[in-house]
């Protein structure tokens, strides 16, 4: 059973998402919230595996709520839902630790798939989206560049090669093929890289690589 929190300021959208999740016995909606502050409080009160998070809400928006939720102990995965394509809000949510994002007009089956994947620890973000988000909205400052280089310096040469693949938005399979490695080995390297970079997901690792100007 995958426990889901639905967050949206539009009551109709909340109702549609709850009804959609209710069509599959694999999912259980444990709560709904109308804004980011209520979402954070709900995660503190209820065991949650995945949060479907609206990005633009009055008061505490989805970016701030995502940042607060991912900072909690053993946080749930956050999937951002938006009516807008790539913009600075989506970038902010991903940088804050969201596992991915979907447009609200995404097919229901794909939304359910995203919940299932992120509950299992995967990221729901295509390589092209990763590259576009970073290239369009990422502007590193001097302090972040220095910290990124210090953290990357703790990686082995092989881990840096894997990180370079992450920075390009490559999948584990693509990295494995490029580096002549087993995919399981790449996955192990990615786990170590995320820990060393204090990153919660592949997107944050990619941002750190770009901060450090990793080729």
From TrEMBL:
BP-aspect Gene Ontology terms = phosphorelay signal transduction system; regulation of DNA-templated transcription
Does the keyword section mention Transcription? Answer: yes
SMART domains in the record, alphabetically?
Answer: HTH_LUXR, REC
4-aspartylphosphate modification sites are 54
One GO MF term on file is: DNA binding
Q: Where is the Response regulatory domain?
A: 3-119
- HTH luxR-type domain span: 148-213
Identify one Pfam family in the record. Answer: GerE
Under the heading CDD domains, the entry gives: LuxR_C_like, REC_NarL-like
| Name this polypeptide is given | DNA-binding response regulator
Q: Which organism is it from?
A: Actinocatenispora rupis
């Amino acid at each position: 059973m995958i426990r889901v929190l639905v967050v949206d300021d539009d009551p109709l959208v909340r109702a549609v998402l709850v009804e959609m999740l209710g069509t599959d016995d694999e999912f259980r909606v444990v709560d709904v919230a109308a804004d980011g502050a209520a979402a954070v409080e709900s995660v503190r009160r209820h065991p949650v595996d995945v949060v479907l998070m609206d990005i633009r809400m009055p008061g505490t928006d989805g970016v701030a709520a995502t940042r607060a939720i991912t900072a909690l102990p053993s946080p749930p995965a956050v999937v951002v839902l938006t009516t807008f394509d790539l913009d600075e809000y989506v970038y902010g949510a991903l940088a804050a630790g969201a596992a991915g994002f979907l447009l609200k007009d995404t097919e229901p089956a794909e939304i359910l798939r995203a919940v299932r994947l992120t509950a299992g620890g995967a990221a729901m973000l295509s390589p092209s989206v990763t590259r576009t988000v970073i290239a369009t909205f990422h502007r590193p400052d001097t302090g972040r560049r220095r910290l990124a280089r210090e953290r990357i310096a703790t990686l082995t040469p092989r881990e840096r090669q894997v990180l370079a693949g992450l920075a390009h938005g490559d999948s584990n399979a693509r990295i494995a093929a490029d580096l002549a490695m087993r995919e399981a080995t790449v996955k192990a390297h990615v786990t170590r890289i995320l820990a060393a970079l204090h990153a919660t997901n592949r997107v944050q690792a990619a941002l750190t690589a770009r901060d450090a100007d990793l080729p």
